[in-house]
Amino acid sequence: MIRLAFTIIAGVLLGGVVHLVSVLALPRIATQDAYSRLTPMTKENAVTALPLAEPSNAPIPFMDPAFAVAICRYDLKDGPLKLTVPVSQAYTSVSFYTRNEVAYYAINDRSAGRKVIELDLMTEEQHSALPEDEEVTAADRLIIDSPTTTGLIVLKALAPEPGLMPQAQASLAASKCTVETEPPPAKQPEPPPPPAPAPAPKGKR
To answer: DSSP H helical segments within the chain, as ranges?
Structure first.
């Protein structure tokens, strides 16, 4: 009886290990992952609008027909990336994925609190190479570290009604995803105030 119990427990543990290894290895060995499917229809380091989702034909799985979708397939080998996404009237979101489809960051118009979502994407090495005396705050510039050199940025704009889809598509069409060949300039300190004028000499009595 004890031997049977140990056999069952060992089988369950072995099955769990095999399942975990399969799930972790699948994105690396898959030949038709999202990055591979989108490569022929997108440009590198540029925003490419995807066609609207249809029941029989969708560029990527689980596309919501109420959203306009655009993709930036990035490669940071030549430098950091500058991303600007105008906010649509309803809802706009930006999600970041590694080459192996691992999500590592997301932001939307509510959390950005601005009319334009603007940020810099770079590797950890490029981030560490920034000048040490550079003063960077969340209000000045948002910097996102990418775990991998290549990956995908998914831009979505909601169209609450079918008639508003052209507006959602137009907001994504105005987005930009470009490589910065030079590092972002450091924040310049404010110039000191001019010296106070010298007091006028007093007249003789």
So the answer is: 2-29, 34-38, 109-112, 124-128, 165-173
